[in-house]
Specification:
The complex is a heterodimer of chains A (94) and B (150). By secondary structure, chain A is an all-beta fold. Chain A has strands spanning 19-23, 27-40, 43-53, 65-68, 71-81, 86-93. Chain A has a 6-stranded antiparallel beta barrel with strand order 1-2-3-6-5-4. Chain A is globular. Chain B is elongated. Chain B is of the alpha+beta class and 150 residues long. Chain B has helices spanning 5-17, 37-40, 83-100, and strands at residues 27-29, 44-56, 64-78, 110-121, 128-142. Classes of the chains: A mainly beta (94), B alpha+beta (150). At the A-B interface, strand 2, strand 3 and strand 6 of A face strand 3 and strand 5 of B.
Chain lengths: 94, 150
Amino acid sequence: VALTEDLAPFFDTAYGFAVAATYDGASPVSVIFDNAYLEQLGIAGTGPVALVRASQVAADPTGKTLAIGAQTYLIRNVRPMDDGAVVLLNLQEQ
Amino acid sequence: MADHVSEQIIAAAVAALTGLATTGARVYDSRVHPLQDAEVAAGALLVDQGDESDETLSIGADRLVEREMELLVVAKVKQTASYRATINQIRKEVEVQIAQDDTLGGKCKYINPRRGELELAGDGEKPVASYTMVFSVVYVTALNAPDISL
């Protein structure tokens, strides 16, 4: 069953959990950003990811950019969440 | 009594590999904790020992033992592009340096590259690459004097 809830409150940058971002150099989007600790091959680091409504990005946004604050990321992978209304973007610093 | 020859070999390898063009002073002996960004910078090396197999060469209480120890030299890189090229640059510098003195100042008979393994990961904020170089280090000691390389 497709999710019919209004997702906007979750992605509200003023009262929700989201922050403002710029997708593909020009499109304003709101994303829920996370950058938790991640160790890879014995090197400490972080794993930046962003939740975004699927309707706000291309069906395959890999290779496009997402700017959050002063940092621009390259979208490296897209993981549909549950019914796909929201996708999780795996990000790489540029 | 001096350190076991294997420890002397590791120390000599760390000294020989410190100051290479790409990895500089970022050479870490028997590192067990994750490297931080500043410790990797343009590239880093981890040095440690692996398996060792021994063969008896003579008889008697002071019989000779030929030992073949694995010297592990692991190149680490964290950067957005050209990570494999940097790994191979580090490999070149390491192999050239080892070949310049393949007895490590007389600590062993010789060192040869044996095998290597490249690992890549791309889930983090930057890709990371790791290349484990396994060198075969042959040295000989008396059974009752493992601190003296013969």
